[in-house]
């Protein structure tokens, strides 16, 4: 089973790119972030015509997450991250697909630092840690997938010295990510490539893609019940070079689901 995550940076404006990649890569399950579309403006027909079912949580102009599944039923569990009833940002959706719990997330950016956006990011991480612990306690296959807006180590960022004051690389944020992993989750891509520079995002400015000045901010965290089935994974880096593409590239893993 091939499972992927892709921050599309506007699903309607980049629909042709998404559909082209879906046709080329043929993932079984896909988590999408940054839909930037209201709930009633999700391109469901085009997604269905491509062979995928979908659940999504949209939001006008910003945010938005979705889960797609090819020829499989999706049973939505929740579309909010517990812990803050006043949080209206569409950044989390959770579903059951073929016996696997899929949590698709788009963690806040957090800039500028210091400030309310950074505090919101820290609190969101706390809520995610609480949810992650609950999901682990179920002792079922679970994947926490998406754009975490964090580079966990210096290996995950081009020229780390330039990012020391950025919310994506602040020690508090890296510590929050590490705390979730330490609950018993497996960082799939880093497990597969323990010593390699693997990037999933390249800014539109300063020829970042051409210079490979990237960041690894899109992650898969696997529960023990499915981590042992991890077979392979990678980044479809070439998609970042397509015309009118997102500043992220699709990231995928292959698991041997019995």
TrEMBL record:
Q: Spell out the residues of the site Transition state stabilizer.
A: 149
Q: Which residues form the Endonuclease/exonuclease/phosphatase domain?
A: 4-248
Q: Which Pfam families match?
A: Exo_endo_phos
Which residues make up the annotated site Interaction with DNA substrate?
A: 248
Site residues (Important for catalytic activity), renumbered to this chain:
218
Q: Does the keyword Manganese apply?
A: yes
Q: Which cofactor does it need?
A: Mg(2+); Mn(2+)
Do you know which CDD domains this protein is assigned to? ExoIII-like_AP-endo
GO biological process: what's one of them?
DNA repair
Per the database entry, which stretches of residues form a coiled coil? none
| Keyword line | Hydrolase, Magnesium, Manganese, Metal-binding
Q: Which residues form the active site?
A: 106, 147, 248
Which positions in this protein are listed as binding Mg(2+)? 7, 34, 147, 149, 247-248
- Cofactor: record remark: Probably binds two magnesium or manganese ions per subunit.
The answer on whether this UniProt entry bears the keyword Manganese reads: yes
Molecular function GO labels: DNA binding; double-stranded DNA 3'-5' DNA exonuclease activity; endonuclease activity; metal ion binding
Q: SUPFAM superfamilies recorded for this chain?
A: DNase I-like
What the record says about family reads: Belongs to the DNA repair enzymes AP/ExoA family.
* Descriptive protein name: Exodeoxyribonuclease III Xth
Say which species the protein is native to.
Flavobacterium johnsoniae (strain ATCC 17061 / DSM 2064 / JCM 8514 / BCRC 14874 / CCUG 350202 / NBRC 14942 / NCIMB 11054 / UW101)
Taxonomic lineage is: Bacteria, Pseudomonadati, Bacteroidota, Flavobacteriia, Flavobacteriales
């Amino acid at each position: 089973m091939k499972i992927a995550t892709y921050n599309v940076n506007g699903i309607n404006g980049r629909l042709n790119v998404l559909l082209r990649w879906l046709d080329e890569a043929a993932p079984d399950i896909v988590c999408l972030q940054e839909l930037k579309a209201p709930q009633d403006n999700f391109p469901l027909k085009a997604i269905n015509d491509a062979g995928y079912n979908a659940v999504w949580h949209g939001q006008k102009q910003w945010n938005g997450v979705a889960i797609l599944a090819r020829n499989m039923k999706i049973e939505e569990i929740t579309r909010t991250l517990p812990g803050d009833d006043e949080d209206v940002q569409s950044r989390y959706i959770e579903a059951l697909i073929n016996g696997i719990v899929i949590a698709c997330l788009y963690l806040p950016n957090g800039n500028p630092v210091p400030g309310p956006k950074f505090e919101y990011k820290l609190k969101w991480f706390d809520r995610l840690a609480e949810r992650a612990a609950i999901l682990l306690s179920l002792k079922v296959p679970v994947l926490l997938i998406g754009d975490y807006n964090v580079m966990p180590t210096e290996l995950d960022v081009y020229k780390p010295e330039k990012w020391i004051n950025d919310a994506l690389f602040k020690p508090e944020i890296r510590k929050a990510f590490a705390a979730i992993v330490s609950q018993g989750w497996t960082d799939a891509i880093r497990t597969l490539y323990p010593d390699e520079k693997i990037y999933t995002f390249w800014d539109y400015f300063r020829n970042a893609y051409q210079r490979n000045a990237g960041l690894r901010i899109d992650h898969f965290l696997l529960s023990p019940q499915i981590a042992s089935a991890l077979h392979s994974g990678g980044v479809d880096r070439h998609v970042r070079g397509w015309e009118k593409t997102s500043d992220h590239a699709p990231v995928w893993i292959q698991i041997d689901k019995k």
